[in-house]
């Protein structure tokens, strides 16, 4: 058996940095599986990437191409023999294997007897396996966005331009993929070395590619960059803000990193920190630096992909950054010239939405909602403060910085706070201007103050009502106006603040602001759908939310609190919990389609157990009511659990649907009484018993 | 090297590579992609290679002639090759050499940019090309145009001419860009930039623009009902520019902006769809 090294390189046009690592991980895994499935042993397998190539190196691959005798089995003897003779099925079997009837014999396979033949087969060679299967492994690499570029419509992140497969010292030719076929060359650095480099062996490959200005291991590239950072930090007495996302991105943008430090005019350090940092990072992918006071320093760090003529290149980069900062400076100084009254007036001109009025009108609607909600939450905001905050809430919407439409637009809120402070607005108000923008996306930071949270919720509720009235509730995957995101934000903030309030009441006000009515059921279901989405992130299943939502509760925090307790018991006391649910399902089933007006009349109890159940339920009713009021939900569940043996026993011993109308009525009344006792907390019959094939609607 | 030499060189290079020299669009467009030579002709089954200069107007980008790099009007060189050649990256790099950029002495980078023209319903994958950190070209493999999935994938190259020329002439300000002996960009366009900025930011008539916008939309739909794709498309372009003016004037909020873009895209998509249907019908004849 021979042991060889294998090298595979897939060459492509520059793939986005963030796609590279996940893609190569998938590919290495697929290749591993391919070898394992074919019984091929191998040593170390490693994946490397640059923007222009994936490289997989597999060490010590055992290639066994010796011949082996193997046994192939066919149909059972009953089928293969008829009246002592071989049947047509037996003949078919031997023919399919290229053998004759005389080669047949009978073997035991498990409990059956089957026919078999012996055959000599050589194992598939590695070359053949690669030829047949490499394409499929490449096809299985998925990227966030994929494209087509040639007639076969092969999908990849960017066009594939070459494929090199070397097994030991042999090139595997003619593996076809998209419009290329595998050959005997690699290509070096995307600018410095674009001509074909012939390769003979894996060892030679690593040597040639290094000489062609390609460092294939991302760890090596990262090391080079970090070492340079260190050097510059010492030399310039600065700290390079090592933004790990940016570093990851840059490592995937170059094949041959060269780090340089440049500077810009001091005047631009007067800009708000995030503006300067944004100008460097967002488009240019420069690292910004801070001095010993933590202030932005007039230096930037750039990672080049070109080792030659570096000084000239640095100068050009400085010119570009200067123009970016100049632009920001223009925005900033122009924006600060506009007095606060004009900013307010401008909002009266800017349309928030074609049919939903101006930005100023939106602010006034938000003020209405904030007044009511802050009173409900007892936040102690004066009407005057609410009016002041609302008047400035969208102060930055008319500024040049935010209207930029590119990287600076993302600073909405932050710029509002900066401008407000610069224009002399009270800090408490300025803070809300920034805070009310959060969260901007799923997982973004949340407002840190009550006031910020209040206005974040009211702004989103106003958008929600306006958009729903204009476009309806989003269906399917489409949500161009971000209605779902707005509601998700409201839920996140509410839970983080632990705020109890009736969201349906505030939504009603939000619609009132537009003089619109709305379908309460639809909106309620939409809110519940988003709560389920949230609950899923805590691993709480949708049926638990259904159980709580069946009560038509509209206090988001309360719904989640109840759901959390149910979820916890479902997994900590699974058996008891399931029994409890089953009991409530039986109760609910019995009550289905029957009309009950009977109250429970104690003297009509005929059976010991029905009386017992009733007495017990009356004993715990008060404590349930009390604990619901106090939101001691664990205690509520404990009360229910204490009733469980009596419910089970009742069903074991007592028949509800007896002929006697009076007794039946009384027992149904008891069932209704029990059901109502549980419905104070949740409708347990909505909960799915796992593993029992219960089907429930979402 | 004068600014026009850059144009001559690109024209020479790409026509030698088989492109038809098309002409700039006769009205206001935000990019060369709007020109029917790209937007319409890249739809359908026929091969097509073209190159042309396009004057691009982006009202919001003006800086009253105060910023050396940003103007409300600039010049693009547009190349469209359908189908995209396999060695297109090399062809592009050769074009840079051809206009006098020593690519071995600069940091040239293909940086991820999923290009999209929201108003045209066009999108593709590719890069912006960096020259020492400066974006000089947009390089895109179209996947969809006017909402129509591309059957044969075209590649679009859009060069930013002023930037490249400034680089070649080694000047820091566009106003110093040499157009011809003794004539600089600033001599010709400084006044215009200032006045256009006054118009774009302060003087354009918002009510008139809103009114025009709605009438243009109406016109597109009417023309399309009659199957008149080319004039309908002219009015889509007018919608787009009118929207850009409203946007520069600050007359619409970010959310309403998204909404208006969506309306224009709907029109572009209708144009593209009907154009494609007519192409298919012609083929069957």
From the structure above, extract its key features.
heterodimer; A: 698 residues; alpha+beta; 5 domains; four-stranded antiparallel beta sheet; 25 helices; 15% strand; disordered C terminus; B: 285 residues; nine-stranded mixed beta sheet; two-stranded antiparallel sheet; 8 helices; 11 strands; 22% strand; globular
Number of helices of chain A: 25
Dominant shape of chain A: flat
Q: Report low-confidence residues of chain A grouped into runs of 5 or more.
A: 692-698
Kindly name the structural category of chain A: alpha+beta
Q: What is the number of E strands of chain B?
A: 11
Largest sheet entry of chain B: 9 strands, mixed
What percentage of residues of chain B falls in helices of 4 or more residues? 40-55%
- Which CATH architecture of the largest domain in chain A? Orthogonal Bundle
What is the first-to-last residue Cα distance of chain A? 58 Å
Please give the domain count of chain A: 5
Number of helices of chain B: 8
Strand-residue proportion of chain B: 15-25%
What portion of residues of chain A is helical? 40-55%
Task: Please describe the biggest sheet of chain A, giving its number of strands, its sense, and whether it closes into a barrel.
Answer: 5 strands, antiparallel
Mean pLDDT over all positions of chain A: 92
Query: How do the helices and strands follow one another from N- to C-terminus of chain B?
Result: HEHEEHEEEEEEHEEHHHH
Q: Which of globular, elongated, flat, extended, rod-shaped describes the shape of chain B?
A: globular
Rg over C-alpha atoms of chain A, rounded to the nearest angstrom: 36 Å
